[in-house]
Amino acid sequence: MSTPTGFMEITRQLPADRDPVERIKDWEEFHLHLSDEELRSQGARCMDCGTPYCHTGMELSGGASGCPVNNLIPEWNNLIYRDQWRDALDRLHKTNNFPEFTGRVCPAPCEGACTVGLIGSPVTIKNIENSIIERGFDEGWVVPQPPFERTGKRVAIVGSGPAGLAAAAQLNKAGHEVTVYERADRIGGLLMYGIPTMKLDKKVVERRVQILEAEGVKFVTNTEIGKDIPSQQLVDEFDAVVLCGGATKPREFNIEGRELKGVHYAMDYLNGTIKSYLDSNLEDGNYISAKDQDVIVIGGGDTGTDCVATALRHGCRSVTQFGTHTKAPLTRDSIANPWPQFPNVYTLDYAQEEAKALYGNDPREFSIMTTRFASDEEGNVKELHTVQIERIVDETGRKIYQPIPGTERVFPASLVLIAIGFDGPESTLVDQLKLEQDRRSNVKAEYGKYQTSAEKVFAAGDMRRGQSLVVWAINEGREAAREVDKFLMGSSLLP
Ligand SMILES: Cc1cc2nc3c(=O)[nH]c(=O)nc-3n(C[C@H](O)[C@H](O)[C@H](O)COP(=O)(O)OP(=O)(O)OC[C@H]3O[C@@H](n4cnc5c(N)ncnc54)[C@H](O)[C@@H]3O)c2cc1C
Ligand code: SF4
């Protein structure tokens, strides 16, 4: 245990973020860091409880509770407190291949389940995780570790997001020859094209990819399986195939005016900006610009929030974010949302904090639904017509949104970004391999087993689970690797 009474004596501390008005002038990460001494005392707040809910990842009421990769949190908190950083790093790598990703972008369900959080503020787990891995890189402790011997088995992985990378890292560790196919020009999936640079610097992704390459993983970019290489050819040529293609089919929003100029999918907007930034520091102009635009983002989730932050950096005139959900309470509702569930409380995410600092208010509109887009004479979107909504239970017992009469409003807009979610994986691989799908159209494969309806073919990450979190993708990639290893070798030593 760190200290028996640390949680009573020391208050929770988070590193400061860069000034919101300053940071929107660039595309750099916005988090700053705590000193080693501050981290040590934060580690001392961990009470090493008998049943550490923080590291017991599970789904509760539709959300994550505790750490989905089962990070050994109390152990590394204690090691940090004792200044044993190298041991803390080894302990962290036992359960998580990529703590530098989760340490930056994970919503930290571990902190929502921390026992100290029952009576006060939880331990700053996510920040300690990121500090351990960054210290590891700074000290030169994170080095390629190729396997001692090869098994002669060949595994193809389709998709290079966190699920594909985690599966590749583990299968390579087991001695298999791993090839990762990616249709984009850069490796990383949504870590590269999706999550903006200010949340996750792309050099951090490339740094890890270089280690995997040095360990022996082969990466093939600009190659779409199903188009450039027929899916069945991959199955025939490899001993096993792991599908980690994500859930990238955008959910349509078929309302009047959807076809107007200036109405785009969020991912086209975000990815164009990231690619142009990486290719040319935005000088090639190959992206949808929000400069001087009145922007409305439809969708209250992570993707919508990233659109708000990106629009601010483009220099938009105004930005508003619509969500169908109600405004969350300021403190956890202990009856409807008890510990250790993920706490549903009102907070300002980085983008909303930035918009508030610039324009004076939270850019979000809650419990709102867009009913139609209206245009000017040239077919450009000009305004959005909306109505407030409430959630009711209909006569069949289903929860549905119902418009509230008399609450109609009109919002001027010249750029609209649709970020209302995803409808499962794209159909090419599914159709070519005749894969069974679940009722949400994801590839059907039991959690923990990952075997699809096709022989030798496994599926993991968003492609199996639906759009989710980086940490779940890492969890599934690791577990799928173990199942593939068992399939190939009869047993497995992988965790
Ligand atoms: C804008 C945005 C922001 C997000 N922010 C966060 C966040 O802050 N924190 C968090 O935890 N989660 C976040 N998420 C969710 C998270 O990124 C995903 O859950 C996670 O990346 C899923 O990993 P994956 O490996 O399953 O799939 P993906 O990351 O989607 O990777 C799939 C890859 O497969 C490739 N591919 C698909 N089909 C083929 C094919 N036929 N041939 C070759 N390649 C193919 C795709 O090009 C893609 O690169 C965010 C998602 C989005 C969209
Ligand atoms: S991966 Fe996420 S849930 Fe797990 S310890 Fe890190 S921040 Fe917490």
List keywords for this structure.
globular; five-stranded parallel β-sheet; FAD/NAD(P)-binding domain; 495 residues; alpha/beta; 17 helices; Fumarate Reductase Iron-sulfur Protein, Chain B, domain 2; binds flavin-adenine dinucleotide; 33% helix; 3 domains; binds iron/sulfur cluster; 15% strand; 16 strands
Report on the structure:
The chain has 495 residues and is of the alpha/beta class. The protein folds into three domains: 6-139, Orthogonal Bundle (Fumarate Reductase Iron-sulfur Protein, Chain B, domain 2); 154-248 and 423-489, 3-Layer(bba) Sandwich (FAD/NAD(P)-binding domain), CATH 3.50.50; 263-418, FAD/NAD(P)-binding domain (3-Layer(bba) Sandwich), CATH 3.50.50.60. Helices cover 33% and strands 15% of the residues. The protein is built from 17 helices and 16 strands. The strands form four sheets. A five-stranded parallel beta sheet has the order 5-4-3-6-16, with helices on both faces. It has a five-stranded parallel beta sheet with strand order 7-15-8-9-10. Strands 11, 12, 13 and 14 form a four-stranded antiparallel beta sheet that branches. Helix 10 (202-215) links the parallel strand 4 (177-181) and strand 5. The radius of gyration is 23 Å and the shape is globular. The relative contact order is 0.13. The protein binds flavin-adenine dinucleotide and iron/sulfur cluster. The site of flavin-adenine dinucleotide (FAD) has 40 residues, from helix 9, helix 13, helix 15, helix 16 and helix 17. Residues 105-106, 158-164, 181-184, 189-190, 194-195, 199, 224-226, 244-246, 248, 270, 302-303, 306, 428-429, 461-463, 467-471, 473 line the site of flavin-adenine dinucleotide.
